[in-house]
Every structure is written in structure tokens, then in C-alpha cells.
């Protein structure tokens, strides 16, 4: 039988006294949390343990005695042994350490039916055989690291306490973390009891942290009032009208604004974090907001430092004009014999002139808006004061407006191509004597007369010979549209990365890796003859990839999550691809 005693490293050189801790239910293990020094009054010790139980919710008890004899304390070990009658326990641990030695000696005393303490080292059987001495293993742990760390499950999901009780190691971490009130008593307190634990030399505190805690209360109240005012403005009837509602749902800037508003509501909540996950979520949101704002002000400093706004305005409009002229040349090339292909001349001329007219309208629109571009960029650059994500979202909306003619060309070509594809597929079913049943959503057999077959053959021939011309225009404008979508996708991914990346968790993993624990490892600390086996428990940090996956902030999906096969199918049949469509549910 092996008895495991989890012993804090800070108590290795503590003065003689009583061991305060807890027996792990269902396990043959004990957790030592603190040592109460001699001299003490037993009644005060019992009262102190009851107070700590009420504050922490942990079933604390006196596990036994700790003896580190010094000069003039020869009878201390016998005195501590007699205390087992005052603090009745099923087991009484009598741990002692000699000066100059690393290992401990442990004697386990059990209470007999009469109430006297008898050592459990050797017991006689009726047939004269003897039991082996109960083996004791000391597991030394860093109390501060274990208290501040969060043990993550190796497999997916946290074990259910009803069906899957927590393991021994998880109970050790939970016990130490829940015993925070026990560590508030230090050497500077004037109480009758003196203890040794990781904060016995003085509680760790920061004046800056305490001042921030005091200042956060009025700041959260002010933020909640501003958010309530903003929510009242957003719920006005003017913004619920059809045009404004549709535009607000399509623009990336409005979506980012609603996303940040939800973040601010989470941060301004007066209720404290309910658990570790909620605390990490709030911390990640706060750090992400601060970094986003800092990057935004850095962008403002660059834009307004050397008149870069004017330079961008003088570069943007000629670039848009150049793109429109390049499209004109592309259409004129398509209206001829592109790559030596023989197109349907009548349809080619109609489509080319149709798109050329739209480009002429777009060039007129660019020339009309050119005097106002610098002012739009100047005031639009101020949106970076809210964060870099707002500037990127506004830039994405501007790209969408400047390339709106490409989107229109893509829609025209896709609709025409899709109409011919579905027409050819329907007429192909006519040749095979089948039709599409709309009510049952399936293909059924059908008999056609001679006139229907004749008209179907004519239409099929016309659509088939016009398909290459339409497909060429559709291919060219789809490639242009995919280029714009790819550029906007990079901007949206950048915004999503800033919003969702758990920077606080990653910083915690780099600076204090023990705070996020994946598990523990043991190594032999001491194995002296005549003493128990001593192991040192070290914390294995959670890998950085698991940190990002676990604490990534849920965000709204920027694009429909279609597979590559579904995307290729849509492109082949001419279905529209909507890059602005956003899901209302959050995804991790």
C-alpha cells in the first residue's frame, strides 16, 4: 500500500508545528497546504480551520505534525505526537526531518477502537506473518505555481463530475487553488497563529494593480452608460428602414462596429468573471482592443505626418481610371478574335457594347467623384482612432465601391451563363424522354410529341452554339471578380485575426508558462537510505497551438464555409458567390 503526500517546497525548512491540509477522497493521498508553528493553542487552531473551511469551501483538517528539531527542542517530537489525541483523525502523519539531511521520515499512526494511537508500521497476522511497512512517497510541488495554474484536459472536453469524477491530480490543483484564504496569513499579522506557506514572508501585491481595480469601477459605469446611449440610437426606427438595414448588414465597417460594441458590453459587465474561461475571454478581448487601438493611432500618425492623405488621393483615382481603361481594352480584345477563337459575332458585339457602355458610365462617375476623394480619405482616416480593424473595414468597403462595375459585369455574365447551362440541361432531359418534377424534386419519365421535340432541338442547337461566347465573357469577369474577392478576403482575415487572436493567453504562455498547464511530470528528488522516496512535480505547459485553439475568441464568419468542391460546382454552373454574406452564428 502506497501513501502519497503532496508536500509544498516552501515548507521544507518550516519550524515545527501542525500540518494543515486535506485528505483526497477516494485516493490514498494527502495534500499539505500549510504548517502552523509552535507555540499555539489547540482551540484557536480548531477555530482557525473552521473559518478557513467556511471561506474556501475545502474540507481542511489537521493531517499530523511536522518536526524540524533545533537546539533546545529535544522533546518537541514527543509533544507533537501526543497532539493526535487532541485532534482525532483516522490517520496521523508524523513527519520529521533531521538537520543536514534532505529526506523526510514519516510515521503513520492510526486510531484503534479504544481511541489510542498505535503506529501502523508493522502488524501481526494470526499465522505469525507480518505485513510489509506502508510505503510513503513525498511529492514536492511549487505551491504558487500550482495555485495560479489552470490544468487543461488532455482529451477534448472537461470530465463530467457526475459520470467521470475528477482525477487525483485535478483534485490536487483544485484544492490548492481553492485554499487562497489560507495563504492570506503572513508573518506581519498580529494574530495568535503563525503559519508557513508560499506567502508567509509577505503577500504579493502591486500598487498599480490595486489602483487600476479602484479606477475600473467608475470607468465601467461610464462605459455602460455610453453603450446604453449607443444601443438606444441603434434601435431608432430610422435605422430599421429597408435601405439602411440592408446597407448596414453589407458594410464591413458597420459589422465591425457592432462586433466591438458587443465586446465593450462584455468588458463593462459589473459581474466578476464566473470562471477561468470567462476571465481569459475578457482578458483576451481587453488586450485585443488595446492593441487594435494602438495600431490604429500608429496608422493615423503615419497618414497625417507627411501629407500621405494627399498622396493616396492622387494615386487612388488614377489607379481606378487605369483599371477602367484596361477593362476597355480587354473588352475590345474580346469583341475580336481572342486567342484565335471564332466567336458568334452578333452576340459578341452585343455583349461587348453593353459592357463598354457600363465602363463609360463608371469612368464618368470616377471623374465626378475625384474632387471629393481627398476629403473622404481625410475624414475616413480618422476612423483609425477606433482601431486598425475599423480602418481595414472601411478600406474594404471602399474597394467594394471602387470595383462595383466589376461586380456588375460578373453578375451579368454569371446570370446569362447560368441561364444557358440550365436551359441546356433541361433540353438534354427532353431528348432522353425525362423531365424535372418540381413537386417531388426528382427526375421523372415523360412522353413528348413531335413538335415539342423539334422546338427543343432548335433551342438546344442555338444555346449550344452561343455557349462558348457567353462562357468566355463569364470566365474573364469571374477571374476579375475572384481577384477582388481575394483582396477583400485578405483584409477580412486581417480584421478577424486581430479580433480573435488570444494575445493575452499567448503572452501568458510565453512569460508564465506554468499558468496554462497541460499536465505534470515527476523526477526523483531524493532517495536516501532510511527515508521515503521524494519526487518533484513539475508543470508541463500547454503547447502554443493548443493555447490559440482553446482561447481563440469566437467571431462571426466572414464568408460562407463552402467546401472546395461546392465552390467549383458553383463556378461551373454559374451560381453567384456572395463574399459579403455573413453568418449570424459565431464560430470558433
UniProtKB/TrEMBL annotation:
Keywords assigned: Glycosyltransferase, Membrane, Transferase, Transmembrane, Transmembrane helix
Transmembrane segments: 285-304, 350-369, 376-403, 452-476, 482-506
GO biological process: GPI anchor biosynthetic process
Pfam family, one: Gpi1
InterPro entries: PigQ/GPI1 (IPR007720)
Cellular component terms (Gene Ontology): endoplasmic reticulum; membrane
Signal peptide boundaries: none
Calcium is among the record's keywords: no
GO molecular function list: glycosyltransferase activity
Protein name: Phosphatidylinositol N-acetylglucosaminyltransferase subunit Q
Amino acid at each position: 500500500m502506497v501513501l502519497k503526500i503532496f508536500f509544498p517546497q516552501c515548507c521544507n525548512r518550516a519550524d515545527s508545528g501542525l500540518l494543515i491540509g486535506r485528505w483526497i477522497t477516494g485516493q490514498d493521498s494527502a495534500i499539505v497546504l500549510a504548517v502552523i508553528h509552535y507555540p499555539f493553542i489547540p482551540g484557536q487552531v480548531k477555530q482557525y480551520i473552521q473559518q478557513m473551511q467556511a471561506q474556501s469551501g475545502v474540507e481542511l483538517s489537521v493531517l499530523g505534525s511536522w518536526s524540524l528539531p533545533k537546539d533546545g527542542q529535544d522533546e518537541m517530537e514527543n509533544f507533537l505526537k501526543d497532539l493526535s489525541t487532541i485532534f482525532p483523525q483516522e490517520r496521523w502523519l508524523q513527519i520529521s526531518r533531521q538537520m543536514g539531511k534532505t529526506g523526510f521520515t514519516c510515521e503513520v499512526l492510526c486510531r484503534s477502537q479504544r481511541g489510542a494511537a498505535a503506529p501502523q508500521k508493522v502488524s501481526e497476522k494470526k499465522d505469525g506473518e507480518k505485513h510489509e511497512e506502508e510505503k510513503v512517497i513525498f511529492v514536492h510541488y511549487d505551491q504558487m505555481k500550482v495555485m495560479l495554474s489552470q490544468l487543461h484536459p488532455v482529451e477534448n472536453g472537461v470530465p463530467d463530475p457526475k459520470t467521470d469524477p475528477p482525477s487525483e491530480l485535478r483534485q490536487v490543483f483544485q484544492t490548492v487553488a481553492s485554499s487562497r484564504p489560507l495563504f492570506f496569513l503572513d508573518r506581519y499579522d498580529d494574530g495568535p497563529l503563525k503559519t508557513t506557506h508560499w506567502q508567509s514572508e509577505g503577500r504579493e501585491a502591486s500598487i498599480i494593480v490595486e489602483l487600476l481595480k479602484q479606477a475600473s469601477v467608475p470607468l465601467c459605469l461610464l462605459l455602460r452608460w455610453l453603450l446604453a446611449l449607443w444601443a438606444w440610437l441603434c434601435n431608432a426606427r430610422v435605422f430599421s428602414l429597408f435601405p439602411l438595414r440592408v446597407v448596414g448588414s453589407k458594410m464591413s465597417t458597420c459589422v465591425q462596429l457592432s462586433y466591438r460594441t458587443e465586446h465593450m458590453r462584455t468588458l463593462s459587465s459589473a459581474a466578476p468573471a464566473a470562471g477561468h474561461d470567462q476571465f481569459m475571454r475578457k482578458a483576451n478581448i481587453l488586450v485585443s482592443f488595446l492593441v487594435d487601438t494602438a495600431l490604429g493611432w500608429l496608422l493615423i500618425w503615419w497618414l497625417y505626418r507627411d501629407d500621405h492623405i494627399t498622396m493616396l488621393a492622387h494615386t487612388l483615382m488614377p489607379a481606378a481610371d487605369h483599371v477602367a481603361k484596361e477593362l476597355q481594352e480587354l473588352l475590345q480584345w474580346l469583341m475580336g478574335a481572342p486567342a484565335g477563337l471564332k466567336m458568334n459575332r452578333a452576340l459578341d458585339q452585343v455583349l461587348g457594347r453593353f459592357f463598354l457602355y457600363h465602363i463609360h458610365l463608371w469612368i464618368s462617375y470616377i471623374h465626378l467623384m475625384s474632387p471629393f476623394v481627398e476629403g473622404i480619405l481625410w475624414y475616413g482616416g480618422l476612423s483609425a482612432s477606433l482601431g486598425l480593424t475599423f480602418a481595414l473595414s472601411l478600406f474594404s468597403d471602399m474597394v467594394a465601391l471602387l470595383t462595383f462595375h466589376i461586380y456588375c459585369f460578373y453578375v451579368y455574365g454569371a446570370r446569362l451563363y447560368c441561364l444557358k447551362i440550365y436551359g441546356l440541361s433541361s433540353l438534354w432531359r427532353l431528348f432522353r424522354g425525362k423531365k424535372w418534377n418540381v413537386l417531388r424534386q426528382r427526375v421523372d419519365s415523360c412522353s413528348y410529341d413531335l413538335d415539342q421535340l423539334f422546338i427543343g432541338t432548335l433551342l438546344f442547337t442555338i444555346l449550344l452554339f452561343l455557349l462558348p461566347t457567353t462562357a468566355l465573357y463569364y470566365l474573364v469577369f469571374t477571374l476579375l471578380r475572384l481577384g477582388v474577392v481575394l483582396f477583400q478576403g485578405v483584409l477580412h482575415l486581417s480584421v478577424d485575426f486581430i479580433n480573435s487572436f488570444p494575445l493575452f493567453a499567448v503572452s501568458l504562455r510565453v512569460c508564465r508558462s506554468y499558468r496554462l498547464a497541460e499536465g505534470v511530470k515527476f523526477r526523483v528528488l531524493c532517495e536516501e537510505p532510511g527515508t521515503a522516496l521524494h519526487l518533484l512535480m513539475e508543470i508541463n505547459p500547454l503547447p502554443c497551438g493548443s493555447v490559440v485553439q482553446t482561447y481563440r475568441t469566437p467571431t462571426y464568419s466572414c464568408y460562407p464555409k463552402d467546401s472546395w468542391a461546392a465552390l467549383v460546382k458553383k463556378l461551373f454552373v454559374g451560381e453567384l458567390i456572395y463574399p459579403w454574406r455573413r453568418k449570424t452564428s459565431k464560430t470558433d
